[in-house]
Amino acid sequence: MKSVIVGTAGHIDHGKTALVKALTGIDADRLEEEKRRGITIDIGFAHLDLAGPGGETLRLGFVDVPGHERFVRNMLAGVGGIDLVLLVIAADESIKPQTREHFDICRLLSVRRGITVLTKSDLVDAETLEVVRLEVEEFLCGSFLSGKSPIVPVSSLTGAGLDQLKQALVKVAAEVLAKDSTALARLPIDRVFTIKGFGTVVTGTLVSGAIRKEEEVEVFPKGQRVRVRGVQVHGQPADQAVAGQRTALNLAGVTKEELERGMMLAPPATFHTTWRADVSLSLLPSAKPLKDRSRVHLHAYTSETLAEVVLLGQKQIAPGQTSLAHLRLADPLLLLPGDRFIIRQFSPVVTIGGGVVLDASPLVRKTSSQERILFLEKMDKGGPEEVLAARIQRRGKLGLTVASAIAETGWTRGRVASSAGTLLAAAEIVRASDLFLSTETFRAASAEALVAVTAFHNYDPLVPGIGRETLRERLDLGPEVFSAILDSLVRDKKLEIAGEQVHAAGRGVVMKDEEAESKQIIESAFASAGLKVPSLRDVLAGLKVDKTRAQKIVTLLLRDKVLIKISEELVFHRDALDDLRKRMQAQKNASPKIDVAKFKDLAGVSRKYAIPLLEYLDRERVTRRVGDERVIL
């Protein structure tokens, strides 16, 4: 079964609700005030099943909207998800102000298909009906309803023309492309109410994806998670609702008072709301010029808020023109690229234009107007790979995660992976763990890393390498990107890593003559001393180099384990300690235990050296202290 959403549009009292009732048998006016006053105030709903051209069932869901100028905001809440429009024009009145405004709204929302219905045809003679038809044809000329789109006269009172209208609906509805039920789900809420014994119920037109019974969904912009207790499609229970269907959801975990029209349901932990959006904005030919920083009323699907329009690259938009713009919203909304919207003048409130969202995740950092315009042009005209590559490029060294790519584009994980795979194969991007970077950015950061390491060596030649974390912070890179860059440079044999230090490949410590001489003096001083080592301070004091360089030379000797520090005061040459280990093993053959006195005799040292040496041997598991003695292990 194919589901198609049909919206009505037209001036007040031109017979929209009567037409829907005549077609479906359902009175879309549900409010007591609507029935009392005889006008539609809020959006109403009905449905009709017709046999399609191939014998399949076409389920038409009707969204009936109010025609009074005071209720255009309610009309806008209903037409956001429609597939085709019935432009209703009364034969006894012809084209009126709200006919024009509603039709402008449909064009701005990029509605592609529809039927023009001349209602109340029973109230005029054939000659008048033909005159009205000609007026309507002229009005529609050049629009999506001109040419092959039918104009059908009907009378909801007598039933004349209804069969022809149904035939036209079948033909046009068959041309409507099915919405993507495999996409990520979004349901703009247009009604909230409670049903005794069930609880909170919301309705809306599912604009993408599918929502299943017992699934969890997130309410935007609240961020609250709720469970779908039950699903109805066009009034009938169902296991799931798919894109393009009028949907009612019974929600658990939320009250009627916590929800309202304009909120949206979507998969949890997938999207985020935004306070700003970059858009392509078109002004109606009938509108006044729109100046930079103007305030407007913005309508997107069922939501409504105020917005400030910041024009990009110009000071105002002329009537009938299109411009790139940045919208600053008064309230957070869930918007995605491709979403259509309407803007209405701040005061008096009339429809003046609309457009399409290009980017609902603009970066906060400053970019030039030209860079921003080039990026948005890619968002507007580029294919999937070009769009993803541009989004990765603008993130620079921060990279773009798969989750962020999904949130920014509205694509599924599979679609992101497919486009990323093409870019990876073409070497346009690289992957670092869960991050994507442009190849250009990756190469630039790699070159910056090499420069930083070389600069460190030049500045501090006595230190073997720069610390990993120090280098990462100096490059201002995240851990994943930094690791990927290091791995790449090591594979290319441009850098080497020793423990936590990074150094240029093949680069060792570079010493001047006096530094090399000092290193030899230090090593000899401790090597010749055996276990009766001198004070490190005294040894360093006799060197030709300054204290800082002397300390760095000692650090090198300690790093290479030529010298071994066993306490804050005592440093020994490794040969002396190796010799001590051998003597301890020989002592074990004579006696497995040794006390401090015997150790002093064995090592030939005073207590000043004996206690630190025994503690060192304990740490090295050469000995184990038991009371006042050591067991030689």
Percent strand equals 25-35%
The CATH topology of the largest domain corresponds to: Rossmann fold
CATH superfamily of the largest domain: P-loop containing nucleotide triphosphate hydrolases
* Distance N to C terminus: 83 Å
- When the domains are counted, the total is 5
Count of individual beta strands: 35
Please describe the biggest sheet, giving its number of strands, its sense, and whether it closes into a barrel. Answer: 8 strands, antiparallel
Cα Rg: 39 Å
Residue ranges: pLDDT <50 for 5 or more in a row?
Answer: 33-37
Secondary structure category: alpha+beta
Estimate the mean pLDDT confidence.
89
Question: What's the helix count?
Answer: 19
Q: Estimate percent helicity.
A: 25-40%
Label the CATH architecture of the largest domain: 3-Layer(aba) Sandwich
Using the alpha-carbon principal axes, give the shape: elongated
CATH class of the largest domain: Alpha Beta
Describe the 3D structure.
By secondary structure, this protein is α+β, with helices and mostly antiparallel strands. The protein folds into five domains: 2-175, 3-Layer(aba) Sandwich (Rossmann fold), CATH 3.40.50.300; 187-266, Elongation Factor Tu (Ef-tu), domain 3, CATH 2.40.30; 274-359, Translation factors (Elongation Factor Tu (Ef-tu), domain 3); 369-426; 513-632, Arc Repressor Mutant, subunit A. The chain has 19 helices and 35 strands. The strands form nine sheets. Strands 7, 8, 9, 11, 12, 13, 15 and 16 form an eight-stranded antiparallel β-sheet that branches. Strands 2-3-1-4-5-6 form a six-stranded mixed β-sheet, sandwiched between helices. The radius of gyration is 39 Å and the shape is elongated.
